[in-house]
Design a protein that fits this description.
Shape: elongated
CATH class: Alpha Beta
Number of strands: 2
CATH superfamily: NAD(P)-binding Rossmann-like Domain
Largest sheet: 2 strands, parallel
CATH architecture: 3-Layer(aba) Sandwich
Strand order of the largest sheet: 1-2
Structural class: mainly alpha
Helix content: 40-55%
Distance between the termini: 29 Å
CATH topology: Rossmann fold
Length: about 120
């Protein structure tokens, strides 16, 4: 599960970026907008793998912006917080749950559900 999540959230971004950069360099301009998350800079419990992919995109994007600026290319991050979407319905369930965390995880899930309902 972790490898699949990193493949989409991190390595997918790298593959797309590497595909478009030669074109942007040739035209001397461009804008790359990467989707991060509030979890990328304020991680929450039970989001360790998701948050770490978003941390990776944060660091990658900020570093890349410095590298590409001389070529007229800018990199921006969109860092949404809780938004009313079907995000929670589409979460992959962990393949290994430890019973010791059941109560705390349930509490965190309730917090996230409430935040999503009140989100933008």
């Amino acid at each position: 599960q972790a490898q699949a999540l990193f493949d989409v959230n991190v390595f997918g971004v790298l593959r797309v970026t590497n595909a478009v950069l030669p074109i942007m360099r040739r035209q001397g301009k461009g804008r790359i907008v990467n989707l991060s998350s509030v979890q990328g800079f304020i991680p929450a419990p039970y989001f360790a793998l998701y948050a770490s992919t978003k941390h990776a995109i944060e660091g990658y994007s900020e570093s890349l912006d410095h590298e590409l600026r001389p070529f007229g290319i800018r990199v921006a991050l969109v860092e949404p917080a809780y938004t009313r979407t079907s995000f929670e319905d589409n979460l992959a369930k962990p393949d290994q749950l430890l019973d010791i965390y059941d109560a705390a995880r349930a509490g965190m899930n309730a917090v996230v559900r409430k935040a999503m309902e009140k989100g933008d």
